[in-house]
Every structure is written in C-alpha cells, then in structure tokens.
Amino acid sequence: MAIIASFFKDETYGLLGPQMAATVIQDNTPYDCIVIAVTREDDKASIKKALADYFGKERPIIGFSALSGREDLFSLAQELRKEGAITILAGPQANVDFIGEQGWQNHPHRFKGLSENFNFGLHGPAEQVIPLLNNLDGNDRSEIPGLLYVDQDGTVIQNSPKDWDEKYLRKVRWDNIYILKKDGIAPINISTGQVLQHIGCPYAARTRETEIDYPVSISGRQAERIKLQLRGCSFCDVAADKGFHGRLDTETVISQMRCLPEAPSGRKIPFELINENPLPNLPDLMSEVNIQGIGLSQVNLTLRADWFISGFQYLREALRVAGELGIYVLLSSIGFESFDDAILRNLNKGLSVEQNLHAIRLIRQLKEEFPYQMGYSSKEGAIHGLIHPTAWDTKEISARIQKTIYLYGLQNDILPPHSTPLIIHHASGLGDWIREIEHREELWFKRYDSIIGWWEVPNRL
Q: Can you spell out the DSSP letters for 246-282?
C-alpha cells in the first residue's frame, strides 16, 4: 500500500499523520505501506509511473491524506480508480469531502464531493482501516468504524467513527516517507518531525456565537453581519473536523519522541510539539524526557497569542530548564493572523490587536533574557500566522494594519516572508457564512472543488 500526501518542493520535514497511519497499517495488516510526498511541481505521469514501479503486479491500494485541497490529487485519485486501483480518502475533513458540500444536490454550483474519485472515505483514527484491509474483498462494510462508501443504490453510507485509542499513537516510523525523483522514488532525509500532544484545539472545545461582516465584494452591504455558532477559528477546517479530544498522556508523548530520528549530534532531530496550549506542561515534560534519557535538540512551538500571555511564566521556567539541558526552543508559529480588530473578529480568533502586541512585547523581553535558548523571529526560522488577503480588506483597514506594522517594527522580526491568503473550506465556519450570504442575496460564489472562491465577484442566480 502507499499513502499519497501533499508536500512542498525541496523541503525535508516529516508528515506525522500519514507516516503514523502507514506505521499502523504496516504493523496491523498484511500490507507494507509507505508515504509518497507529492509536490505541485510533480507531473501526473511521473507519479503514475512511480506507483506502477512500486506496486508491480500487485493491485494498487492507495490512500490519500493531507491533500491541502489540491485538485490535481483529486483528479489523480479518480484516474487511478478508473484504472483499477483501490483509492481511499483519509485525513482531515475526509467525511465531508467524500459526501460533498451541504445542500449540493439542490445547488449545482456547490462542491458535490469525491465519492466518484475514491472507493472509500475514512474519517477519524487511522486504525479504523485495519478491518477494511484485512478483508478487502468482503461485502459487509457496515461494521467498519469511520468508513464511507457508496451502496448499490448510489447512496453514500457513513459509519460512525471510533474514539481515539492512544495505543496506536505511541509509534511512528520516520523512514517510510519518499519523494519523487527522476528515476522513481527516493527516501526523504527528514530534518524536522512532529510529536502529537493534543488532538484538536482547546479553543474549539466549545461553541461561541459570533457575527461576521459581509465581504467587500458585495458593495453597499458592509454594515450587514451574519450570526453564526462557531467552534474554533472561523477559517479552521481542522477545528470543525476534530474539535478538541484532549491531551495525550505523558508516556504516549515520550514514546513518540523516542521514535524520532537522531541528528548527527546524537540528539533527536528538531520537532514541532502539536499542542495549541503547550506552555503549562512544558517545564515538567522537558524534565521527564531528560530523566528518561532522551536527548532533545530543539522543540518548535505553535500557539495562540493569548495562551502565550497566560503561559508566559511557564515558558520562562521551561527556558531555564532548556538552558540546563542544552535544548533550543523555537516559537515557530504564533497565530497572530491579523493586526486589525475587525478582521480578527471575522476570523473568530477570540483575540484583539492589543493582545497580539502584548504577546510580542513579552516575546521580545524573553529573547533578551534567554538569547541562546529561544528563537522567535522570521530570521530564526519562525513563520507566524498572518492571513492576507481576506474577504474584508478595505483601504482603511489596510492603512491601520500598515500603521501598526511600522509603529511596532513588526517587519523586523514578526512578519513572515509571505502572508497566507484566506482559504475557505466548504465545511469550515466560513463555509456556512458564504452559504447564508448566497441564500440572502440570491447569488453564488465559484467553487474550486472543496475550496470556495470568495475572492471572485459573485454571480447572480
């Protein structure tokens, strides 16, 4: 079996989700399994040739995960299925992408889903695929948790997913990921890994009511707002998919750390700790890892600005411990997202510009205290969250943001080399926002498969 995942050209990072899934498959089914990381520059013919070489005379069984909404990989899956491969859609939002956008049967412009591209969908923990692969030719799919498929009447069936089981989250192989080369596939020499500590985001644990402005593409309606009940940030499809399932126990986290490859120094390679609120437990985690004899080199943290503020003293203590143990801490990505309050409200960040700026002041202060234990700036490898353009940009908002950027010197250390455009997945909170606007205004926005083209002028019905 092979799992295809989206990747960026010339990178050397690992893919925890697909690689952990491949590990589960390898250990619990009759199949060997690898991950093939596919960039946008890889042409379809080269991918298909590499797959043909890998499978030989065996029937291809190909999973697709972490696809980043890529239309080229959706169409590749459809071609492979028509040619006889078994294709399985997994990863974040696999269920809603398999089923299609809400109400697509009555609205032809909406995303109709990928049930024609894939034989199966799989929503939830990777181990749910075990009974499918162990009885691939069976007729009864009803007892396989998390499975989506089309029955004989053409109806999409969705089985309820099982709960997360930590015993499947303790092990991951980091030598099972490959990239395309001229002569086929070659292993990636991974330089940055990931360790899972939180499943989902605590901010998505409860529902909040918010009001989101009309997009500027609909002239004359900027005073109008849409009320929505949202879990997490309005643009986050992972929050809508996973919500928050809680924290893994310390031994599970440490077990994942043991699996990480070693750098030439003999310590573990740098890794991202997947936890939106890692600071309260970070000092104790570092100490416990040291007690167990695991040498860490660098921990990359991704977190929210408000949780950085509330966890400031924990991070200071963690940096003191890191100094004693020779560990470097990189604040690799803080989700500032914007420096305008109206846009932050529309993104449902639960943050203000002042909180963002307060966090930056504290970060700069910590850097002065721990210049050799901590990094945070773009020059040190950090890529902080900045979403631009958005559906609400105006000349006034842009002017306010630019004033804040230069007043606080954000261009010197905080701003990433490139911002990230607002992406609206059809099943995110902003997907509901778009559909409500379409209903009220009797218009429609173009779909690019699972992504809604908010940046285009809408069409009248």
A: EEPPHHHHHHHHHHSPBPTTSSBPPEEEE-SS-GGGH
Amino acid at the residue 457 = V
CB atoms within 10 A of CB 223: 7
Within 8 A by CB and 6+ apart from 196, the residues are: 16, 20, 169, 248, 253, 256, 274
Cβ-based neighbours of 234, under 8 Å, separated by 6 or more? 210, 212, 228, 346, 347, 348, 428, 429, 430, 433
Look up the CATH architecture of domain 193-413: Alpha-Beta Horseshoe (3.80)
Say which DSSP state 456 is in: S
232: Cβ contacts below 8 Å, ≥ 6 apart: 201, 203, 204, 238, 239, 240, 243, 348, 429
DSSP-assigned letters across all residues of 385-438:
-BB-S-TT--HHHHHHHHHHHHHTTHHHHTS-SS-B----BTTSHHHHHHHHHH
User: How is the chain split into domains, by residue range?
Assistant: 2-187, 193-413
DSSP helix/strand/coil, 57: coil
pTM: predicted TM-score of the whole model, two decimal places: 0.95
Amino acid at site 255: S
Nearest to 336 by CA among 374, 286, 372, 302: 302
- Between CA 428 and CA 391 the distance in angstroms is 15
Residue 335: which of 136, 442, 201 has the closest Cα? 201
Q: Which two tokens stand for residue 185?
A: 């596939």
Output the CATH code of domain 2-187: 3.40.50
d(CA 242, CA 240): 6
Q: Is the distance from CB of 197 to CB of 275 less than 8 angstroms?
A: yes
Contacts for 388 with CB less than 8 Å, ≥ 6 apart? 338, 419, 420, 421, 422
- Contact between 308 and 363 under an 8 Å Cβ cutoff? The reply is yes
Cα separation, 38 vs 2, whole angstroms = 12
At 14-30, the pLDDT tens digits run 999 999 999 999 999 99
Question: Which pLDDT belongs to residue 242?
Answer: 84
Side chain identity, residue 206: R
**Residue 31 half-sphere exposure, CB side, CA atoms within 13 Å?**
26
Spatial distance between the Cα atoms of 299 and 270, rounded to a whole number of angstroms = 6
pLDDT tens readout for residues 199-244: 999 999 989 999 999 999 897 787 889 999 999 999 998 888 888 8
Helix (H, G, I), strand (E, B) or coil at 458: coil
Spacing of C-alpha 379 from chain mean position: 24
CB 54 within 8 A of CB 185: yes
